[in-house]
Protein 1
Amino acid sequence: MRRDGARPAHRRGCRAEPGHALRLSIPAREVILARASVPEISVVNQLPATIQALDPDPSGNVRVTLRVGNAQLLALVTAASAARMRLGPGEPVYALIKALAPVSVAGG
C-alpha cells in the first residue's frame, strides 16, 4: 500500500511502470460491494471506499457513487441489495473488482 492509502490494482494484461498514473473506466455493473474486506475469495481488487450518493432508477436498481482515495467509482446494485445492506451516504464499504472485468485503460 502506498502512503496515500492507494493500493496497486491487479489487472490482467495491463502493464504500467510503478508510480505511473492510469485512468481506468470500469463499468458500474462490474463493481461488487461488501461491508468488509472478504478474505479467501478470488477477487483480489478490494478497495476501501465511502458511499457518496445513492441514485435509484425506475428499473429497480440503485447507482452508488463511491469515493476511493481521490477517485470516484460507480457501482450498480439492486434496490433490494441496497436496502438489505443498509447502504447510505458516508457509509464505508469495499468495492470488489475482478481482474478480468472489462476495463478501459488510458494514461492518467
Protein 2
Amino acid sequence: MIIKVFQCILAGFLTLSLSSCGADNGSVKEMDTMSADQNITLEVLNPKVEISTEFEQMVKEYEKENPNVKMNILTFGGRGKLPCRIESKICSK
C-alpha cells in the first residue's frame, strides 16, 4: 500500500516537472533563421568501405536539399584500425 502511494506521488511529481520544460516559441524561431543563413561544414565518419559509393550519393542528395550544408566524408576501412584513426583525426585539429 505504501509503495503504491509512493509510486503515485512520484509519477505526479515527474509529470509536473516535465510539463514545465517547454520552450519559448519566439526563441526557437529566432534560432531557425540564424542557422538558415549560416554555412555549415560537417565531417561525417563512414567506417564501412563497402557502402562508400551509396553514402556519397546520399550526401550529394542531402547537400542538394540543404545548400548551406557541406559534408566532408571520412571513409575509414578496417575495424581494428578505426579507433586509432579517429583518435589521430581528433588530435590533428
Protein 3
Amino acid sequence: MSFTLKAAQQFGIPELLLWTTSACGLLAYMHYSQLVERGYAPLQDDASCIDWLDKKESSSVVYVNFGSITVMTAPQLIEFAWGLANSMKQFVWIVRPDTLAGDRATVPQEFLAETRE
C-alpha cells in the first residue's frame, strides 16, 4: 500500500488512486531496454546495495531520490550530501549522473569516507 493511501486512511480522508495509461507510457515500456542501453534509465547489475539493505532493520534506512527532472548546482549537491551525513541516519541515495547542470554529479571523497560502512 502506498504512503498516500496509508495517510488517507489514518486521517479518515477518502482515497482514490487512478493509474492512466498513455501512448507515451506504452512506448516507454516497449522501448525500455533501448533506454537502458543508452543510459537514460537507471539500471545497475550491482546487487550489493540490495544485499546491504537486506541486513538492515525494517524502516531504518532513508531512501533519497530526486527523480528525473531535478537539476542542482555543485554547491547544492555537496550541501545536501553533508546534510545526509550529519543526519547520522543510514541512507541509500540515488544520484543521476546528470543531476548537475552541465557537469557530472560527484561528491567529495571526504563525504564518501565519512558515510561508508
